[in-house]
Amino acid sequence: MVLCFAFFYVPIIITMIFSFNSSKSFANFTGFSLRWYESLINDSEILSAVGVSVSVAVIATVVSTILGTITAIGLSKSRKILKEWVLNINNIPIMSPDIVTAIGLMILFTSVKLEKGYFTMLLAHICFCTPYVITSVYPKVRSVDVNIANAAMDLGATPFQALTKVIVPMIKPGIYAGMLLAFTMSIDDFVISYFVSGNGVENISMIVYNATKRINPTINALSTVVIMTIFVVVFAVKIAPVIAKQQWFRRLSVKIPLAVKRVFLFASCAAVVFSLIQFGGIYRGGTTKTLKVYNAGEYIDESLLELFEEQFDCKVIYETFDSNESMYTKVMSGEKYDIIIPSDYMIERLAKEDFLQPVDKSLLDNFDNVIPAILNQPFDPENQYSIPYFWGNVGILYDSTVVRESDLEAGWEILRNPDYKDNIYMYDSERDSFMIALKALGYSLNTTDKSELDRAYEWLSEQKRLVNPVYVGDDVIDNMVSGYKAMAVVYSGDAAYIMSENENMRFYAPECGTNLWIDGMVITKDCKNTALAHDWIDFMLEDENAAVNTEMVGYSSPVEAVYTEISQTVYEGNEAYVPRQDNPKDEYFRYQDPEIKKYSAELWTKVKTQ
Amino acid sequence: MKYFKNLVKPYVVWSFVIILVPIFMIFLYSITNSGNSLINIQFTLDNFAKFADPLYVGVFVKSLELGVITVGVCLVLGYVMAYLISKCKERTQGFLILLVTIPMWINMIIRIYAWKSIFEPLGLMYTDFAVMVGQICEFLPFMIIPIHTSLSKMDKSLVEASYDLGANPVQTFFKITFKLSIPGVLNGIIMVFLLSISTFMIPRILGGGDYMLVGNLIENQFISVGDWNFGSAVSLVLAVIMLFSIRWMKKIDKADN
Fold first, then answer.
1. Which pTM does this prediction carry?
2. Is the CB of B102 less than 8 angstroms away from the CB of A472?
3. B120-176: per-residue pLDDT in tens?
4. Which CATH number is A391-517+574-609 given?
5. Are A180 and A23 a contacting pair, CB within 8 Å?
6. Most buried one in A366, A392, A401, B224, CB count within 10 A?
């Protein structure tokens, strides 16, 4: 039993230890520091997410426990056919994968034009929590003797009294179990919350998920605080009464249960108040100017948000996504933003599907400062819709102590060199992997020729046989900082960061061509206050702000002066910060025809599961 | 007792709106092929025909295998834990159950990353073992709690009676204790099985991108490929499999009684 508990708590202890780590890594402990606690206190995004998580969990638990309990009691007295139907329907949310429930609810809320935010998140949580309560209470109710309630009523109890004084106490264990389950499910939920929430309402899971690009140790600090709080409360509730039994404590012992009750009462009141504030927040939104920005996770220096609010006397609602595709899914579902920061091919897609409005460059004083070489690219000629935010390319990051320089001459083929078997990270993205294969074979990365894609598929599946690479997401960043493998395919901006943390690492973009990319700021058709949106874009291009941003994120700045300066100071000698601009074989991604997209996605699944 | 019959009504309405309607929409997606627009609907069964591809059959088989193993290990560990806990004093029991639950209040993704930082130096990352450990740690509480619930409500005098009638501890355990805890066991099995088969975060982080389970497949279709129609079809097939396995387990339950 002790072993089992150890098993549960090992990950938590690790989390706690790393919350005192002085560096950002979640793999190497570099020294003791309290900096993550400091940043926790100052991080209003995380703090408000805690509020959302807890208040949603508390309210959803209370509501679903009441709803679930009365339903379970009612069910036991219903006709068989109704009973079976309700129980089967009840199983649906438990049985279907979260993502299905999430998409289903998202479609529902959109189709009834319910504004997404705190309220929809709460509804969704009640939706998936109640079935758990019913399943744990129902068997208990079934085992209760029907006659007892009847007897109570014969003795003059009202049905309500019979319910609360007789039946409920008998099924208490079931109710507690259901409550515990509901609370647990609610507080840990990510997928459903992610899809049904909006308007800047985020819970902890959403923040954690979107921050996986660079694990934010502030979250570790938060977990430590949470676990300590829980233990203090548990101590107060469970241990204290035991001590209270001792002689000298006896006087206090009466007061303790009362105090505990008060604590709970206080907690639920706080939750309700918080949720009211949330509701209020939505409606208050009309009075001051607001700007809704949707950006990738960990892709901005957040102090800039506050600075912008101050300078332009407005409120920025800032939300994050983890990939262009999930951003697109959310936008398609009817969520409204003013500014989005997608990548090139996605900009083209959004423009094609009429989601964007043209940017008026005469309103941008700083537009002339942008590096000319990254303007007027094929995905958005004339930069009608987008203004560059960050840019770079894709290449191979390698450990110079392991990889022989001469092997690099093979270009992308080095990724199939059997000498590096089990020593390579590939990027788990079908578009990027096919890019590598297509470029290695000398084709265009935007090919629409299925036979070329077939050849690329063979290249990739042979690669899997030859070197057995690991396909990873953004965790490659932390892994390479720790130097776990010899080589990895990474974005130049991430490479710049990794190289600044691990001096053995070098970056190399093969001569046979690679993918150039630009993430750009776009203004959506939904944006009403276009002046403010232009102010935002101009603000991000201002020298000072751009410098703060590029230094924090590590990606190459689009502002020429800043780019030149940072590449000579902070990132001096860091070849990843200065992506090459002169190789004619380098290409930008273009919007892919859905047919081709589906075809290559299928091939990619095949590669991975072979 | 008639009074209580009406108590079920609010939930009937609620579940219709918030469970059935969305599921119907998913169903609609699975039998059409017009992508995200519902304007020009074309009905088709192509999305289901795709399952003939050994590729997707393989994904399902692998998920089921992993699900079954996870359930097996969780059942053994979970039962032992629940049994030991139920032997403790009442007050301690509540405390121990709370201890089992608390880890789940810390964000799952964080805990998975913590496992990652343990496995990485040991060279265990991106293996079946890593995914299994992650899943078991994540889902074991869902096995312990229902089993403990049914063990704790068990009438202890039955065990004593069994001893009095000359049964040895092993016999008593299998004939009395285990039999009476079967509802909890089944509940636990169903929960863990459902969770482990539809998860996608754990295999993605601990198993690497080529660790493709049904949950990943569905998530992939909805998010990165954008093929909601096929994604809906996969989830429906999964739901049907789940439904049948639950039916089957309920039958065992009944046969035992």
1. 0.83
2. no
3. 888 888 888 999 999 999 899 889 988 988 888 788 888 888 888 888 888 888 888
4. 3.40.190.10
5. no
6. A392
